[in-house]
Amino acid sequence: MQEEDKKPFCSVKLIFQEHWQEFKVKYKDTLREIEINEAEKMLSCKDENRGGFMFYCRPCDRYEFIPFGCNSRLCSPCGKRYADQWASMLAERLEKNIFHRHLVFGIPDMLWKYFKEDRKLYKVLMDTAYKTIKETFSKINHIDIIPGVIEVYHPFGRDIKHQPHVHMIVTEGGFNKEGKFVSSGNYIPYNALHKNWEYNILKALKKCLPKGIVEEAYRRYPNGFCVYVRKDRISSRKGLAKYIGRYVRHPAIANTRIVAYNGEAVRFYWKDHENKIHYKIMLVYDFILAIIQHVPEKNQKLIRCYGAYSRRKIIRITEVQSSITISISVKIINKRIAYCSFCKERMEFIGYVKKPPDKDKSKLATWIEMQ
Known about the structure:
Elements: H1 12-26, H2 33-43, E1 52-57, E2 62-67, H3 76-91, E3 100-106, H4 112-117, H5 121-141, E4 148-156, E5 162-171, E6 173-175, E7 181-183, H6 190-205, H7 213-220, E8 227-229, H8 237-245, E9 258-261, E10 265-271, E11 277-283, H9 284-292, E12 303-307, H10 308-311, H11 317-329, H12 332-335, E13 348-353, H13 361-370
Antiparallel strand pairs: 1-2, 1-13, 3-5, 3-8, 4-5, 4-12, 6-7, 9-10, 10-11
């Protein structure tokens, strides 16, 4: 792919701006409320009517208004910012001097539709993935151990189709009953792991699946379900947090992957596990449907901590998210950083505003005095 092909002709937001209203009317009977809310939040991102921050540039002697973001699950810039903040907070709370591994627990396409129809199965998939890795590590060490696990549920594949799977960061080993960490080393029995995963997840899903599906799955996949195990170990806490942070909040497709858009169809690329580039063309409405289908239900957890990590309050995911919120809302005066759009120097934070102050300098000065 040539360098110029990598430059996007448009953004996801632009496509929604041009088609959302007509799309919403056409699919009004099938759209979920959360899909509508997240799409319209994205469309209002950086809108001055949302309010924002006021900064002052001393070298330029000018004030600059920066609108609030939307924090929508469909917005690429806000998703990246959220993931970076989450990863930064998490890196400070992970165990030191312990190697971690990255695993991906997948299921065959014959089961995908059931997770789309019943989103409560997300938790079943995540709980069962932890159960499988705990059993595997305990068997390796011949004693019951509790690993530290952080999981992120991912509902889509690289080509943005519905493809439920779980990304897992797990300690290489776990804690025994005495609280001592027991290393499992670099060895993971792949064949046994695949078969154990298949057995555990089909057993957990048996009551939720139509009759005959479980038997058919065993027949089609005699060697078990896929579990991808990254070969290299992760020793850096920052590297670990940054790696898992990639899967925390980003939307199904980044703007940089869109290579063409003509108002009727969208062309984008994706890379497979062998780093081979593939191109895909979708009609606009199909593209929008493919993206919004991955929005989870309100308050649905896509990130969970298990085992040794779940016991430590400082890295429970709900508390990590709360601490991020606190750092943004309470300590924002010290944390908020912005640079002048003219001289590029760091500006001073002034305060919050519900709407942009009048650009007239005298009126602006009066507003500043009132704050």
